[in-house]
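Why do we bother with a discrete structure alphabet at all? Because it lets us treat a fold like text: something you can write down, compare, and reason about line by line. To make this less abstract, here is a complete entry for LYR motif-containing protein 2. Read it the way you would read a sentence in a foreign language you are learning: slowly, and without expecting to understand everything at once.
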Amino acid sequence: QFLRRQQVLLLYRRILQTIRQVPNDSDRKYLKDWAREEFKRNKNATEEDTIRMMITQGNMQLKELERTLALAKS
């Protein structure tokens, strides 16, 4: 359980760091609020499989955001 918590916190930090790179202020605020709400809404999840699935989804969304930012910069 401790390791899962560490994974979730690391994912949260990486998402927020990536969001900081978004050039548009309103988009950045929207994404930050969205991320905060998603993590807050799911903080009481205890089912191991559910948590693993949410971490996987979070990582996929992070990769998508990184790809979008990379395309916007090129």
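What the structure line is telling us, in plain words: The mean pLDDT is 95. The two ends are 40 Å apart (CA to CA).
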